[in-house]
Inverse folding.
């Protein structure tokens, strides 16, 4: 519904459990999807993958988008930081989303990282501790 012109694929197992505040975790996921929609190449696909890596649950949101230089990639999680002010004036946002998302991940004992592949694919990876069953 958020991006009818985009092909969004989801790869996820039937069940994985993490102990987290569902509202805050939803905020992280919404932010990552919103960024993929706003800053990804128009019409490009968005991929969401959830699984287990190194005994932790990961959620990856990836899309094709403009290359982010190394200098910017080091600052991307700073509050109020926008990669390219001249390009992003037309795009709503304050530059707080990724900073807040990373802090929420850390508050849950996890981490949010940025990865960029040479083929123009940009990925944000949320890592959280897996729990053995649903709580509450």
């Amino acid at each position: 519904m958020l991006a009818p012109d985009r092909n969004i694929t989801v790869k996820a197992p039937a069940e994985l459990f993490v102990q987290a505040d569902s509202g805050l975790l939803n905020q992280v996921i919404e932010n990552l999807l919103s960024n993929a929609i706003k800053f990804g190449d128009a019409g490009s696909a968005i991929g969401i993958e959830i699984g287990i890596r190194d005994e932790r649950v990961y959620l990856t949101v990836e899309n094709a988008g403009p290359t982010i230089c190394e200098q910017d990639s080091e600052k991307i999680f700073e509050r109020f930081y926008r990669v390219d002010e001249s390009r992003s004036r037309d795009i709503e946002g304050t530059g707080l989303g990724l900073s807040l998302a990373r802090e929420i991940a850390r508050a849950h004992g996890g981490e949010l990282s940025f990865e960029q592949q040479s083929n123009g694919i940009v990925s944000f990876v949320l890592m959280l501790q897996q729990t053995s069953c649903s709580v509450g």
Remarks:
- The radius of gyration is 15 Å.
- The chain has one domain: 8-131.
- The helical segments are 22-39, 70-73, 85-88, 97-107.
- DSSP finds four helices and six strands in the chain.
